[in-house]
């Protein structure tokens, strides 16, 4: 047996936990798909992966939405969390746990981290007065607000309408962590990706930190503050703690020691401050190791426009799945949008990619190769003869794919990993056109077999390495090549065995009509 790259080492990856105050949208689906592809890649590369996702059920917005709907908040949380989980399942998400912050073990984890921060002396009681964005559950300093045309006080950065809050709350001594945070970003530049986000965070922290209000008394939908049940924790305190709960903190020491610190928190760019400033400060205060990396993906827009309920252009992931298919959606989002940047979705761009990359570049190569093996070799893998330079060029390019794609995935450059695979597919399509095995078959069956063997090898390796992105289709392709059950990346160099009987080929990536 061979040792895999991961050699069974633990790898802990998380997504943000969404507010279930409405239905999930395509932005949520994007985060789940991308994190799932990263988790699957690590699993196939031999890591012992733990992938955590879930919902963030507390906070004022949840309570307000439930009031509007006239149902208990717990009922809203359960109903909508179920919808988020159903979406994950439909997306093929390979999570180990779907946490809801209403889970009992999460309450306990939140109490323990709170007590530890309090024991350090970082929590004190004071009066908070200022602006609050209920939608994002964020406090705003007066200087970061303006008044809109309707005379409402709004956040300068996103225009959300703010409410004045004035109450006695507990504060976290965030101001004490400025130097330690700057030192963290300096000594661990990999802590925040992509680079542009790190620069944002560094300049924010350099601008000075004020203490953070970390409890609320004007509503009760949250985790009660230990010893002070008239306060509930500020929703972000308990929300961030989900990453600890998900690996057994504080009671399951074995699991916690195995998987913590997290290798990667996948989040969207709007919540970078919570993950790269507040979260490491809370952990430093509580004496808990810091996560190794936070990666912020960009936002998805509908034809370049921001999705919003008022514009009526919110894309429902279910309808996209119905229309395009799961692997098509997964591929499109991960290939079209450079991971870490904003991206745009449109039916036209999706159809174009599905046809060009999947139906033509990949599907057609597989289809031609397999049908010629059927026609000229009775469906048995042909025996390659001596390789020409043209053959070797393709085989060599193929054999460098795993390390290249791994390097890309290691820095979450998912789109570049896919680009590397598709460049070899393009090269192979040029090769098959130049070699013309359909003509060779009339004069030189051995040479025909060699060319088809090379093409089949490319299909095998690309299908193997694209599994994290398109699990179902790639496994179907590997089935068509009679590849055995072990489909981990350790098998990348196990070439197809000549003489192996292949099943009757079927179309894996159908064309779409524009
Ligand atoms: O922020 N495109 O929850 P949330 C891409 N509960 N990603 C998007 C997006 C879009 N249009 N809209 C949202 C929260 N997201 C908190 C997280 S974590 C301890 C607590 C992403 O439901 C967003 O960036 O508002 C975030 O990563 C995730 O969806 C959940 O957003």
From TrEMBL:
EC numbers on record: 6.1.1.10
UniProt-listed Pfam families: Anticodon_3, tRNA-synt_1g
'KMSKS' region (motif): residue ranges: 306-310
HAMAP family, alphabetized: Met_tRNA_synth_type2 (MF_01228)
Function noted in UniProt: Is required not only for elongation of protein synthesis but also for the initiation of all mRNA translation through initiator tRNA(fMet) aminoacylation.
Protein name: Methionine--tRNA ligase
Methionyl/Leucyl tRNA synthetase domain sequence ranges: 11-370
Gene Ontology terms, MF aspect: methionine-tRNA ligase activity
Xref: NCBIfam families: metG, PRK12267.1
Gene expressing this chain: metG
Subunit structure comment from the entry: Monomer.
Keyword entries, A-Z: Aminoacyl-tRNA synthetase, ATP-binding, Cytoplasm, Ligase, Nucleotide-binding, Protein biosynthesis
Residue span(s) of domain Methionyl-tRNA synthetase anticodon-binding: 381-510
Top-level enzyme category: ligase
Catalytic activity: tRNA(Met) + L-methionine + ATP = L-methionyl-tRNA(Met) + AMP + diphosphate
Subcellular location: Cytoplasm
InterPro entries in the record: aa-tRNA-synth_I_CS, Anticodon_Met, Met-tRNA_synth, Met-tRNA_synth_2, Methionyl/Leucyl_tRNA_Synth, MetRS_core, Rossmann-like_a/b/a_fold, tRNAsynth_Ia_anticodon-bd
PANTHER family: METHIONINE--TRNA LIGASE, MITOCHONDRIAL, METHIONYL-TRNA SYNTHETASE
Family the UniProt entry places it in: Belongs to the class-I aminoacyl-tRNA synthetase family. MetG type 2B subfamily.
Organism: Gordonia jacobaea
